[in-house]
Amino acid sequence: MQNNIYKLTDPQGKISEFPLREGTFGPGTLDIGSLYRDLDVFTFDPGFVSTASCESKVTYIDGDKGVLLYRGYPVEQLAERSSFLEVAYLILYGELPIRSQLDSFVNTIRHHSLVNEAILRFFTGFHYDAHPMAMMAAVVGSLSAFYHDSTDIHNPRHREVFAHRIISKMPTLAAAVYKHGIGQPFVYPKNDLDYCANFLNMLFSVPAEPYQVDSVAAKALDLLFILHADHEQNASTSTVRLAGSSGTNPYAAIAAGIATLWGPAHGGANEAVLNMLREIGDVKNIDKVIAKAKDKNSGFRLMGFGHRVYKNYDPRAKIIRATCHKVLQKLGRDDDPQLELALRLEEIALKDDYFIEKKLYPNVDFYSGIIYRALGIPAHMMTVMFAVARTVGWVAHWQEMIADPHMKIGRPRQLYTGSPKREYLDIGKRK
Ligand code: SDX
To answer: Residue 229 in contact with residue 386, Cβ under 8 Å?
Structure first.
């Protein structure tokens, strides 16, 4: 059908045709795979603002409408009625599990939670104040040293075992990272606890006395993990896909995703929001901060605001914001001045023309830190929490890519603007 063909004419009048590939929702894509061969030019799109890097069935985001679907299910419904491991099953396998499938999946995840004792000895090499994301990237990457020879990425069963192992071990390693930082002994996983309760127990229990996980805290963590589980082709997921496209060990690809998530423009924003709120300190300082965020020369951005895709309220931020008061009240932390500060900051920013014109709304990172803090998670551990949840999405996208028989190694081109060809000059002749 002609209306599905886009034509491009070059300066010499040569016409090239590019088929439009349409998906279930959202903008269609121009298949420009033949562009370089036909017209000897590349596209130029730093930051991939207008570029679809792949086809995927995992997650759909409508940035204008503030819509987020995991395998077609609205994140609001999953947040309200599902659990993190059920959502993990959905994202990994594409369908909501029946009871027997969920029970088997939960049981499998519970029984992969230990890590090789040698890995726990790696922590002795880190200073106590090493950044948790630095330690996380290192120890998760080290899993590839333990599972390299037993992981054939072209074997679907091996891919599934990798998925179970990494999802199960992330909380164990994250808790070890935290314990190392505070000088407390590591706490081993307990297979009689649910995923988030087990994680909280490994974070906060100590051998010296009994510890009872607060069910409100476990439920709040489960909700945060559902909301952070996947988000289509964000920077860290794109990194996992690009790293994985070389055929590298999948644990190493996940470590690359962790490294990318750490950045303050991405998952590191939740830590940056808490630090920003602490620096603001009082409502009377908000106008000054807003002015700084609007000043191009300041290099400062309002952390937790703005998004490459959402030009409306991030649906995840909406859910977390609504949950904040309830969770803080139940945890007896509803006197947290930072929540009031965050609410006032949002209120003032969303009335400001700069934020309105640039469609800058709170994103998932703006409120999540408030709840994490109420759970006792320190600011520098918050991106680690994000990484634990996002591991599900990273794995699902890696599996989707590796299972694709047409997968190719990712290898972008460039626009070269460097020096013309020149001859080597011996050092004695250089000026
Ligand atoms: C996450 O991609 C994902 O899906 C990510 C994520 C996920 O789940 O994986 O949703 C998680 O990373 C959320 C984003 C967390 N980051 C932050 O909160 C950091 C603060 N936000 C910004 O740095 C920024 O908004 C980004 C990085 C999130 C998006 O950047 P874009 O899409 O490249 O937008 P841009 O930098 O081109 O900004 C557009 C304009 C610019 O002004 P102009 O040059 O057009 O004049 O808006 C301005 C920016 O200066 N702007 C901001 C701003 N964010 C954008 N100005 C002040 N404060 C901000 N926060």
So the answer is: no
- 307 Cβ below 6 A of ligand 1: yes
Q: What would the pLDDT profile of 303-346 be if each residue is shown by its tens digit?
A: 999 999 999 999 999 999 999 888 999 988 888 888 889 999 99
Is 59 near ligand 1, meaning CB less than 6 Å away? no
Q: Convert the pLDDT of each residue in 151-169 to its tens digit.
A: 899 999 999 999 999 999 9
* Residue 61 Cα: closest atom of ligand 1: 4
Distance, CA 64 to ligand 1 centroid (Å)? 15
Nearest atom of ligand 1 to the alpha carbon of 235: 2
Tell me the three state secondary structure of residue 213.
coil
Cβ of 365 below 6 Å from ligand 1: yes
Of all protein residues, whose CA lies closest to atom 54 belonging to ligand 1?
Answer: 306
Is residue 373 within 8 Å of 339, Cβ to Cβ?
no
Residue 60 has phi, psi (to 5 degrees) of: -125, 135
Residue 198: C-alpha distances to residues 3, 82, 202, 263 (Å):
55, 18, 6, 28
- Strands of the sheet with 73-74, listed across from one edge: 59-62, 67-70, 73-74
Q: Counting runs of H as helices and runs of E as strands, what totals does the chain give? A: 18, 6
Closest ligand 1 atom to Cα of 266: 12
> Could you give the CA distance from residue 197 to residue 216 in angstroms, rounded to a whole number?
10
Does the annotation mark 230 as catalytic?
A: no
- Please, what is the angle between helix 250-261 and helix 156-182, to 10°? 50
Query: Is 307 assigned a catalytic role?
Result: yes
